[in-house]
Structure formats: C-alpha cells, structure tokens
Specification:
elongated; about 25% helix; alpha+beta; 8 strands
Length: about 190
C-alpha cells in the first residue's frame, strides 16, 4: 500500500503575519524565507506525526483488497472518501461505489466487505482510493500544540539558518519533540 499526495493544502496552519509576529520581525525582507520555513515546519510535523494538518487530497494505492476488510488511511485524520476505482489488466478503470466504505475514525481505517468489492485484474496498483484528510480548512481547526510546534520549529530554523556545526543548535528543539509526542501514532 502506498499513499500519494494529489492536492496540497490551500493554506498553512500559521499565516505569515503570525509567524512574523512570533519571530518579532517587522520588515518584509525575509517574508519568502519565513513562509518557506513555515511550510517546511508543517511538513516536518506531518512527517513526525503521520497527520495531515490542513485539508489535503491523497490517493491510496493497493494491489488487492485486504482480506481483513480494513484499509489504514495515512496520513490521518480521514475526512471523506471522494472516489475509488479498480483496474483491469488493460488499464481500464471501473468506478467503485464510495458508499461501500465505512470510515472508522477512531482507528483511522476504511472498513468494507471484501467479497462485495469488484476485483482488480491488473497485477500491481489495481486499486485506487481517493480520500480527503486533515483537521480542516482553517488554521483554527489544527490543534494548538501542533501549531505551536510549527512556530517553534520555524523560529529555530530562522535563528540557525546558516551552516551550523553538528551540535545541539542543528537538531530539532526538545520542546518541539515534546509537543509532537501525544500526536504520534505508534504501530505495534
């Protein structure tokens, strides 16, 4: 199973003005840099937690339907299933009714009845499921600890944006790691 980003978020969970205020920057000279650091910090937080902070569209690609009738959705949290299809050996797609999936929000999986689904005949990547994920479209939808982790990480990278020797200043601050810890999904 793999997940592919289809549509990136339309906005960041931290605006340029909020980031500049936190950094106490009053000029416009570093706006592009600060905006890039906010995006990089969001991507870091998403990678560390397995969460999509703002609404994004992803495609889950499978070779076959899992026998257990559950498909993990990564990144989480799942908002909706927008489309699904299976492919035949010639590469022709057949739509799958999205009503056949039941989102299990607690487990962040899609439940389905395996024998009720059309079978793909393509050897690999025979199933595609498009999902919308994320906490929402507004920055206020993102949990505040995750937004604060972005602030701190962007500030750290802004402070140490030049070449830095391999020491504590070049690592992710422990405060950021502590803010992310409750949001990490552990796999057993």
């Amino acid at each position: 199973m793999s997940s592919l980003l289809l549509t990136a978020p339309a906005a960041e969970p931290l605006t340029l003005a909020e980031a500049k205020s936190f950094l106490r920057v009053e000029t416009d000279e570093d706006d592009a840099l600060i905006a890039a650091l906010v995006t990089a910090a969001r991507l870091h937080v998403e990678a560390q937690t397995g969460l999509a902070l703002m609404t994004q569209n992803w495609r889950i690609v499978l070779d076959r339907w899992p026998e257990c009738g559950r498909i993990p959705v990564r990144p989480a949290p799942l908002r909706s299933v927008t489309a699904a299809r299976v492919y035949d050996r010639d590469g022709h797609a057949q739509a799958v009714d999205t009503q056949g999936f039941v989102p299990d929000m607690a487990a962040m999986t899609l439940a389905f009845i395996p024998w009720a689904m059309a079978l793909p005949t393509r050897i690999a990547a025979g199933i595609e499921i498009d999902v919308a994920v994320g906490f929402g479209d507004a920055a206020a939808d993102v949990p505040e600890p995750l937004r604060h982790a972005i602030r701190l990480l962007a500030a750290h990278w802004y402070e140490y944006r030049g070449l830095v020797a391999a020491d504590a200043r070049a690592t992710v601050p422990s405060t950021v790691a502590a803010l992310l810890t409750p949001y990490r999904r552990l796999s057993l």
